[in-house]
Fold this sequence. Notes:
By secondary structure, this protein is mostly beta strands. The protein is built from no helices and seven strands. It has strands spanning 9-17, 20-27, 30-38, 47-55, 63-73, 78-90, 101-109. It has a seven-stranded antiparallel beta sheet with strand order 1-2-3-4-5-6-7, with no helix packed on it. It is elongated and about 40 Å long.
Amino acid sequence: MMGGGGLFGADLEALILPRISCQLGVGIASFGGALNYHLSPDLNSPFCSLQYWQQGRASNHVATYLGPMFVYRFKGIFQTGIGYAYILDKGPANTRPDNNFALMFQLGLYFPL
Length: 113
């Protein structure tokens, strides 16, 4: 669920201030971005984040999400995150039209440069 909540995707993250980073991602039929606050002054640390995700495009648009997330980065290359989002927009592929909130989660690998 990287790259804006896509099943397969990739994010690029860069520090813009000490402990503050900006993140942009693209996935299969998804994209997203985030503003992150790291618990340590480097990119390899866990962080709190404000995430924006858009899943799907045009007639395959599912929903657009905005919400907080906590991402834990393990020593090595694994990371996982969980959050809760408000649904900003629902698309024609949305199967739950009466729900305004959603659970956000991710599991992936990170490669510090």
